[in-house]
Each structure stands twice: as C-alpha cells, then as structure tokens.
Design a protein that fits this description.
Layout (H helix, E strand, L loop, with lengths): L3 E3 L2 H28 L11 H20 L5 H25 L13 E2 L3 E2 L3 H21 L1 E3 L13 E2 L2 E2 L3
Helix pairs in contact: 1-2, 1-4, 2-3, 3-4
C-alpha cells in the first residue's frame, strides 16, 4: 500500500515561492501594458521575490488554518492584505539597507517611503482571495507518495494530478 503524505513545509514554501515569482512577472507585464501600452509585455522581478513570496504565503497559510471557520472570507482577505503590506514594507526596508530593494513606489501618489503604495490595495486584496481559495487550499491537498516509482501508476492509493485518488 502506498504511503501518501502531505507535502513538507519546505515543499509548500517552494511551490508558493514559484507561484509568487510567476505572478509578479505576469503582474508587472500586465501593468506595463496598461500604463504604457507596451506590447512586449516585459515582466520583471528579482530573485529576492522567491524568498519574499514563499515565506509570506507560508505565513498566510498558517493564518488561513487558524482563521477559517472563525471569521468570514472577506475579513480573512483583509487580514492577508494588511499582512502583505507589513511584509512588503519590512522586507523592502531591510533590502534597502543593502541597496537591494527591487521596487520603488515613490512615483505613486499614495506611497509610504517608496516601499508600499495604496494604489495596489485592490490587486493585493484580489491576490489574497485567489491565494486562499485556490493556491493554499489546493497546495494543502497535495500528497507525496515516497514509495511510488516515477512514471508508473501507483497501487490502491494511486495519485491523480497530485491529489490522492479516492474512487
């Protein structure tokens, strides 16, 4: 019988880091198109984004597990958005000490020290909603079958698309 186990925190961190990295590239490409009509869609990010997103989403995962069932979805997303602003400011402030902060919002009307901006409140809130409802919830459902051979179907507890197949 196969032994399917939940992903480790490190595995989930990795998935969250890659997800955040990809989303940032796509968001910056879309922003460049909307603001400058740049059909090249140049999406940009920094290697720091891997640590920033991976760690932040792993912390939001912990919040989700504690808050689900205790407060409504919109309140949770508001909490996640506030966390995102705090995390973005903190990591940006630390990186700025080493001249390594890859973002600067000083050109925005409602920025604070160029590290955060209220203009991103709606995108961060929508991102929080997507993060909880799709990314975190589905990542927590993923299982790792350490006994499975690569490329071969599993036994009675066969995995389908990363999820434990129950039928």
């Amino acid at each position: 019988m196969a032994s399917a186990e939940p992903l480790t925190a490190l595995s989930r961190w990795y998935l969250y880091a890659i997800h955040g990295y990809f989303c940032e590239v796509m968001f910056t490409a879309a922003w460049e198109f909307v603001v400058n009509l740049n059909w090249k869609f140049p999406g940009v990010t920094s290697v720091w984004a891997l640590f920033i997103y991976g760690t932040s989403i792993l912390i939001v995962e912990r919040m989700y597990l504690r808050l689900r069932g205790r407060c409504p979805l919109l309140v949770r997303c508001l909490i996640y958005t506030l966390w995102t602003y705090l995390w973005e400011f903190t990591t940006g402030f630390i990186l700025r000490q080493f001249n390594a902060c890859p973002w600067d919002y000083s050109q925005f009307d409602f920025d604070f020290m160029g590290l955060i901006t209220l203009e991103y409140a709606v995108p961060w809130f929508c991102g929080a909603l997507i993060m909880e409802q799709y990314i975190i919830r589905n990542t927590l459902r993923l299982r790792f079958d350490k006994d499975a051979e690569p490329g071969e179907p599993g036994g009675p507890l066969a995995l389908a698309n990363g999820h434990v197949k129950t039928d």
